[in-house]
């Protein structure tokens, strides 16, 4: 369940599509039933429903799907490496969200100029 935007659900969609995993994308932009929101663990979406198992929190969903579909590395060290990269990407995402909502016009050029320095770390980890 999510809105018809990329937002917090897009990495989950990409994981599912990239691995050929079936899913149903349910748009909740027309409103939530009054009985639904209180059942969500943190009262928010996105939500993943896998049979009778329900999750919210997008990074938790990524880790769950990675483990379930054997995409989480061969051992605990590889899994930790994946977590580290995921958390690093989350830091980039949070900086971008802050720019968009707090300082876009004044901060855009500086933000873009700083991207190569930030991405060099990610590129090194992904080699």
Report what the structure shows.
The chain has about 130 residues and is mainly α. It has 2 domains: about 5-70, 3-Layer(aba) Sandwich (Glutaredoxin), CATH 3.40.30.10; about 75-125, Glutathione S-transferase Yfyf (Class Pi), Chain A, domain 2 (Up-down Bundle), CATH 1.20.1050.10. The chain has helices spanning about 10-20, 60-70, 75-100, 105-125; strands at about 45-50, 55. The chain has a two-stranded antiparallel sheet with strand order 1-2. Helix 1 (about 10-20) packs parallel to helix 2 and helix 3 (about 75-100) packs antiparallel against helix 4 (about 105-125). The longest helix has 27 residues, at about 75-100. The protein is flat and about 45 Å long.
State the secondary-structure class: mainly alpha
Strand content: 5-15%
Instruction: From the alpha carbons, calculate the radius of gyration and give it in angstroms.
Output: 17 Å
Please count the helical segments. Answer: 4
- Mean pLDDT comes to 90
Based on CA inertia axes, which overall geometry fits? flat
- CATH topology of the largest domain, which one? Glutaredoxin
GO molecular function, one term: glutathione transferase activity
InterPro entries: Glutathione-S-Trfase_C-like, Glutathione-S-Trfase_C_sf, Glutathione_S-Trfase, Glutathione_S-Trfase_N, GST_pi, GST_superfamily, Thioredoxin-like_sf
Protein name: glutathione transferase
Domain GST N-terminal: 1-73
């Amino acid at each position: 369940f999510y809105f018809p935007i990329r937002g917090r659900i897009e990495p989950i969609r990409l994981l599912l599509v990239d691995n050929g995993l079936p899913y149903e994308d349910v748009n909740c932009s027309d409103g939530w039933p009054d009985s639904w929101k209180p059942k969500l663990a943190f009262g928010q979406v996105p939500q993943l429903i896998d049979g009778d198992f329900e999750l919210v929190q997008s990074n938790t969903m990524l880790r769950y799907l990675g483990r379930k579909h054997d995409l989480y590395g061969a051992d605990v060290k590889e899994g930790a490496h994946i977590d580290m990269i995921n958390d690093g990407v989350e830091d980039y995402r949070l900086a971008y969200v802050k720019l968009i909502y707090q300082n876009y016009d004044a901060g855009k050029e500086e933000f873009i100029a700083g991207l190569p320095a930030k991405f060099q770390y990610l590129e090194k980890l992904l080699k």
